[in-house]
Design a protein that fits this description.
mainly alpha
Length: 209
């Protein structure tokens, strides 16, 4: 959300300027900034991967928990890295396609979540965790790749090359995303930190509550 909020205004300004060369530089710079942000997200998940034993999780579920964290990390990496292409649907004012893509992403999340209810009654907890995480990542990736492919296919001005990257354009994205990053980080702490605290003090039951 932070990367998307930072890219839409800058990409929109460049796209509607009708300067094809400038837009090439802007989009390529946005992709590089998003890739760097995706790598940062991957590092955060790597930290969680290492810290799994610190949480109150039964030892027999450590391997499954690590696999789940790995899958979520890959999913986040792809989502953040591809965010400029997804944002292009909004930038080019194809709101029907943009909203449909978001609906499909939420639907894939729902299907993966609904599968958990089924899986835990049919599979062992370890297998259910791995299977639900795999399903979440696969469905989300399919929707993401389809959305990016549609954006590239329907917008001829999309052209990304490393040689098009400009430091000035990259700085615009970091400035645009700066305040959004602070707000989203605070919201993440608000909505996620309590789950971590509950787990540390009350175990898996606390996480469920």
């Amino acid at each position: 959300e932070t990367v998307r909020a930072g890219t839409v205004p800058v990409l929109g300004n460049s796209f509607h300027d009708r300067n094809v060369e400038r837009f090439k530089h802007t989009l390529s710079s946005a992709m590089l900034v998003s890739l760097l942000a995706a790598l940062v997200a991957l590092l955060v998940y790597a930290g969680l991967f290492i810290c799994v034993p610190l949480f109150q999780i039964p030892e027999e579920l450590h391997s499954s928990a690590r696999w789940f964290v790995f899958l979520m990390g890959m999913s986040s990496f792809l989502t953040v890295a591809a965010s400029p292409l997804v944002s292009m649907l909004a930038v080019s004012e194809r709101m029907t396609a943009f909203n449909f893509a978001n609906l499909m992403m939420r639907l894939s999340d729902f299907l993966a979540g609904a599968f958990i209810l089924y899986a835990f009654s049919k599979l062992s907890p370890a297998d259910a965790i791995v299977t639900s995480g795999t399903l979440y990542t696969i469905l989300g990736s399919i929707v993401l790749f389809a959305t990016c492919g549609y954006a590239i296919y329907t917008e001829p001005r999309i052209s990304m090359r490393l040689r098009f990257v400009k430091l000035e354009e990259a700085k615009l994205f970091t400035k645009s995303a700066g305040w959004n990053a602070g707000a989203n980080f605070a919201m993440s702490l608000y909505s996620k930190t309590d789950t971590v605290i509950y787990n540390l003090f009350f175990g898996l039951f606390g996480s469920m509550v």
